[in-house]
Each structure stands twice: as structure tokens, then as C-alpha cells.
Design a protein that fits this description.
Elements lengths: L5 E7 L3 H12 L3 E7 L4 H8 L5 E2 L3 H7 L2 E4 L6 H9 L7 E4 L7 H7 L5 E2 L1 E3 L20 E4 L7 H13 L3 E4 L2 H26 L3 E2 L2 E2 L6 H7 L6 H10 L1 H24 L2 H20 L1
Parallel strand pairs: 1-2, 1-4, 2-3, 4-5, 5-6, 8-9
Antiparallel strand pairs: 7-8, 10-11
Helix pairs in contact: 3-4, 4-5, 7-10
The protein binds 1,4-dihydronicotinamide adenine dinucleotide.
Length: about 290
């Protein structure tokens, strides 16, 4: 792995992703100092107290002027506005990347930066928790990070962005923003939508005065853990990737209709065939 080091790294939005990135950088000694900014200043203050940051900054322009690498890790709908502000102040050599779960905004963002400073990113690693207290340095270990460079992206900046995500433990792949948003709708955004909808569908159901969710075992818990995820983060994702998510949900509805028909028919062999065909997808996945 290539050595990479920045004198100052700036984190915009010091929640789960921003704090975990800062902790991973700190543990691996990839920066001289880590500065952080958050909207109300509360999470950056907390991150300072936790020793995640070296300095809390209340002015985005200062981070833009002083930090060699800036990582924007705020809810998706806030990212374009933050990038516009950063673009007005960054130096020629500064690299700006982000951790947003949807990448449709990166075309406009790319155009904003006169020195091709921006490289869109998305570390595919997370939990249902949020805020700086939820951060941990091994969050990114062994997971995949998607970058969305363009044909005219600055090669040197792209390489350094790849190096830093690799240095915090990630396997970096590149693809177009459209590919990213379509893939993520299938493997992340749709499962979250289904988990939210599943929990919502049993809301208020009771038996003998008990909410049925209080009787649930491991199956329900495993399937619905992600429905505890942050409300702002997920409403931003649903809004900004709505077309792809709706298309994935339509495929899902089709598959669900097929399963409902098979269950209604009550043919055991048909049911086992469906379950086996499904199980094999996951078995074959884990062999790769
Ligand atoms: P979080 O809720 O833990 O942290 C977000 C932080 O951004 C908070 O500190 C908040 O104060 C700050 N913030 C909100 N609006 C802001 C603004 N306008 N200006 C400055 N700071 C602002 O969220 P988390 O989970 O760290 O997510 C951050 C980004 O990473 C989101 O874009 C999300 O889609 C993406 N992501 C999240 C993953 C997850 O599993 N949580 C996984 C991969 C990407």
C-alpha cells in the first residue's frame, strides 16, 4: 500500500462516518492534525472532547483554506451547498471528497471546482447508529469504497483520494455516478426501504394487550435492525435517489407477488424450489 500523509485533514460533519474516518486516520498516523466542522457545532465539540478532532472550526472557509484533504460527511441533501461554499475558498492543490450515499449531485459539484479538486466517494460501510460517539476506527476495514471520477478528473488528486481510502482499510473501485446510484438502490436503499416499511406494517398490532413487536425473536430483529437508522440521513437518500429506488421496489414487488402466489398454491415442491433458488444466490456470493 502507498504511503499517504496530509498535514491537515478537515472533516465536515463529524458523525458516524466523519468520526470513524478521523479515528482511522489518527490510528494510522495519516495526518498531522484533524480539524472538524459541523452545522450546530455540537457534534464537532463532542468529537473534540472524545479526542477525535484536534481542532473544532466554526467557519467552513477556514477549513477550505487550511486543509489539504477535506472529507464531507453530512446528510446527502446538504452536500451540494457545502461543496459550493468550499469551492469558493479552496487552494489549487486541495482535495475534496465526500461520503454521501447518493452520487447524482457530483456532476454539478465537479463543475464548481476550478482546479478539479472534487472526487466523489462513498465508503460502503456503516451501522444503524449516528453521531460522533458511534464512530470507531475499524469501521472501513475490508469494505468497499466507490469513487466516481470523470474523464477529466485530475489524476494526481484521484490517486491520493484512492490512497487515503485504501489506507483506512478499504478496497477502492471506480464507477460512474449512474452505476453507483443504481447499484446502491438495489443493495442498500431498497433493503432499508423494505425494513422501514415492514416495521411500519406491524405498527400498532397487539395480542392480549402486548405489542407484537415485543414478542419478536431473532428473525425480526436481524431483518429490522437497519430500520433504526437515522431519519434525516434516510429521508435525504430516498429523495435524492427516488427513481432508482422506485424501480428496485417494483422488481421487489414482482418477486413478492411470485412468492405470494407460490405460498397460496401450497405446493411444497414449488415453495422449496423458490427458497433453494434464493438461498443459492447467497451461498454462491460467499464462495467468491
Ligand atoms: P451522522 O448523522 O452520524 O452525522 C452527520 C453529521 O453531519 C452530524 O454531525 C451533523 O451535525 C452534521 N451535519 C448535518 N448537516 C450539516 C450541515 N449542513 N453542515 C455541516 N454539518 C452538518 O451521519 P453519518 O451516518 O455519518 O452519514 C454521513 C454521510 O455518510 C451521509 O451522507 C450518509 O448518506 C453517508 N453514509 C452513511 C453510512 C451509514 O451507514 N451511516 C454509510 C455510508 C455513507
Amino acid at each position: 500500500m502507498k504511503k499517504v500523509f496530509f498535514d491537515k485533514i478537515g472533516i465536515i460533519g463529524v458523525g458516524l462516518i466523519g468520526a470513524s474516518f478521523a479515528l482511522a486516520v489518527r490510528e494510522r498516523k495519516l495526518a498531522g492534525e484533524i480539524w472538524g466542522y459541523s452545522l450546530s457545532g455540537k457534534s464537532s465539540q463532542r468529537a473534540l472532547e472524545l479526542g477525535i478532532l484536534d481542532r473544532k472550526v466554526d467557519d467552513l472557509a477556514i477549513i477550505a483554506q487550511e486543509c489539504g484533504l477535506i472529507v464531507v460527511s453530512t446528510p446527502v441533501l446538504t452536500i451540494p451547498g457545502i461543496l459550493a461554499e468550499l469551492a469558493a475558498h479552496v487552494k489549487r492543490e486541495t482535495i475534496v471528497t465526500d461520503g454521501g450515499s447518493v452520487k447524482s449531485f457530483v456532476y454539478d459539484a465537479h463543475k464548481l471546482f476550478h482546479h478539479k479538486n472534487f472526487i466523489g466517494g462513498h465508503p460502503i460501510a456503516g451501522t444503524e447508529k449516528s453521531g460522533p460517539d458511534a464512530g470507531f476506527s475499524s469501521l472501513f476495514d475490508g469494505s468497499c469504497c466507490i469513487l466516481t471520477p470523470f474523464r477529466d478528473t485530475d489524476e494526481g488528486k484521484l490517486e491520493k483520494t484512492r490512497d487515503i481510502w485504501e489506507a483506512v482499510g478499504m478496497n477502492v473501485v471506480a464507477m460512474s455516478p449512474e452505476e453507483h446510484d443504481s447499484v446502491m438502490a438495489n443493495i442498500s436503499h431498497m433493503p432499508h426501504a423494505i425494513a422501514f416499511s415492514l416495521v411500519n406494517s406491524v405498527r400498532g398490532k397487539t395480542v392480549s394487550g402486548n405489542k407484537i413487536t415485543t414478542l419478536a425473536g431473532g428473525g425480526f430483529r436481524d431483518f429490522t435492525r437497519i430500520a433504526r437508522s437515522d431519519v434525516v440521513m434516510w429521508s435525504d437518500i430516498f429523495i435524492s435517489n427516488s427513481k432508482n429506488i422506485i424501480s428496485s421496489l417494483e422488481d421487489f414487488e414482482e418477486s413478492l407477488r411470485r412468492l405470494k402466489r407460490i405460498i397460496a398454491d401450497g405446493e411444497k415442491s414449488e415453495i422449496t424450489d423458490y427458497l433453494e433458488e434464493t438461498r443459492l444466490v447467497l451461498v454462491n456470493n460467499s464462495k467468491k
